[in-house]
Amino acid sequence: KPRVFSGIQPTADSFHLGNYLGALREWVTMQDTADAFYCVVDLHAITVAQDPDELRRRTRVSAAQLLALGIDPERSTLFVQSHVPEHAQLSWVLECLTGFGEAGRMTQFKDKSARQEAEHVGVGLFTYPILQAADILLYQTDAVPVGEDQRQHLELTRNLAQRFNSRFGPTFALPTAHIPKDTAKIQDLQDPTAKMSKSVPAGVVELMESPKRSAKKIRSAVTDLEKEIRYDVENKAGISNLLVIYSALTGRSIAELEAAYEGKGYGDLKKDLGEVVVDFVTPFQEQVQGYLDDVAELDKVLRKGAEHAREVGAATLRTVFDRIGFLAPT
Ligand code: ATP
Ligand code: MG
């Protein structure tokens, strides 16, 4: 079975439609064919300031959402990143192999650091992609289900793996990005030229917010001054984004939706999509609450996941330490 790894940050009270359609939906399906490792990446979360109690709470809420979406801890390894210290240890080794200029070319760092005042931008935000490379390489990963925004980080991960392998001998599997064709980049509803993002909560449809609120956000999505419901990213970014979401949640093709809405208005499309979203999130939220009602069981699932992840990760790290010449402890 191929090995799959991916992670998500516990940086908000809720995952959003972009997370779900760009990545998490693939996580769920890939369980059927792969040996999957899925991780709530709290080490990544602290690259921007987090309140300690909120972070703890959001870590559990994140795990509960993953379970509610269908991640099955009997088939997949679900765990919290900080429970497996090998991530940070491998990250250090990889940092020492990364060029300063190479890290500086990462566009997500440029975007995220530009949003904050210079003195608040931590070095961790800069080295984030290297920790991400460690997350992936630690498990000898073949495929990484992520959204389009992670393509560049995956390229860096491959480069670091190849660099290590050629310098110290074959050690890491070479991972490929598994990026969905149609839903790789869900756009913000208020700014359909920008990615929907946990850290920019303008036009974000949160899976955990009140369904009424989601429907309202969809009704007030930014569109254009024409009337025609047609997929055209260049000229009709807002409508195109709504069509992508609608199609992904219902399984109806975009062509089919265009035909169905011929002669109808944007208001009709938005109202119907609002209902589709409400029908999706309502049972989901009930399930999440179920998992959160039994925190002891939730923590147990995460503990077992971390135990298994550590076994696999520690084996890779031992090889790495040996290859680079660290004296084995006796
Ligand atoms: P942040 O803004 O804090 O980085 P985020 O919304 O990007 O948060 P992450 O935890 O960084 O969330 O990403 C989790 C997964 O969701 C990644 O695989 C990422 O590629 C994917 N993803 C995030 N936003 C989108 C989006 N708008 N469309 C498709 N996939 C997305
Ligand atoms: Mg992100």
Automatic annotation (TrEMBL):
<feature type="binding site">
    <location>
        <begin position="18"/>
        <end position="19"/>
    </location>
    <ligand>
        <name>ATP</name>
    </ligand>
</feature>
<feature type="binding site">
    <location>
        <begin position="9"/>
        <end position="11"/>
    </location>
    <ligand>
        <name>ATP</name>
    </ligand>
</feature>
<dbReference type="InterPro" id="IPR001412">
    <property type="entry name" value="aa-tRNA-synth_I_CS"/>
</dbReference>
<feature type="binding site">
    <location>
        <begin position="195"/>
        <end position="199"/>
    </location>
    <ligand>
        <name>ATP</name>
    </ligand>
</feature>
<feature type="binding site">
    <location>
        <position position="186"/>
    </location>
    <ligand>
        <name>ATP</name>
    </ligand>
</feature>
<feature type="binding site">
    <location>
        <position position="135"/>
    </location>
    <ligand>
        <name>L-tryptophan</name>
    </ligand>
</feature>
<dbReference type="GO" id="GO:0004830">
    <property type="term" value="F:tryptophan-tRNA ligase activity"/>
</dbReference>
<dbReference type="InterPro" id="IPR024109">
    <property type="entry name" value="Trp-tRNA-ligase_bac-type"/>
</dbReference>
<feature type="binding site">
    <location>
        <begin position="147"/>
        <end position="149"/>
    </location>
    <ligand>
        <name>ATP</name>
    </ligand>
</feature>
<keyword id="KW-0030">Aminoacyl-tRNA synthetase</keyword>
<comment type="subunit">
    <text>Homodimer.</text>
</comment>
<dbReference type="InterPro" id="IPR002306">
    <property type="entry name" value="Trp-tRNA-ligase"/>
</dbReference>
<dbReference type="InterPro" id="IPR014729">
    <property type="entry name" value="Rossmann-like_a/b/a_fold"/>
</dbReference>
<keyword id="KW-0067">ATP-binding</keyword>
<protein>
    <recommendedName>
        <fullName>Tryptophan--tRNA ligase</fullName>
        <ecNumber>6.1.1.2</ecNumber>
    </recommendedName>
</protein>
<dbReference type="InterPro" id="IPR002305">
    <property type="entry name" value="aa-tRNA-synth_Ic"/>
</dbReference>
<comment type="function">
    <text>Catalyzes the attachment of tryptophan to tRNA(Trp).</text>
</comment>
<keyword id="KW-0436">Ligase</keyword>
<comment type="similarity">
    <text>Belongs to the class-I aminoacyl-tRNA synthetase family.</text>
</comment>
<feature type="short sequence motif" description="'KMSKS' region">
    <location>
        <begin position="195"/>
        <end position="199"/>
    </location>
</feature>
<keyword id="KW-0648">Protein biosynthesis</keyword>
<keyword id="KW-0963">Cytoplasm</keyword>
<dbReference type="InterPro" id="IPR050203">
    <property type="entry name" value="Trp-tRNA_synthetase"/>
</dbReference>
<dbReference type="Pfam" id="PF00579">
    <property type="entry name" value="tRNA-synt_1b"/>
</dbReference>
<keyword id="KW-0547">Nucleotide-binding</keyword>
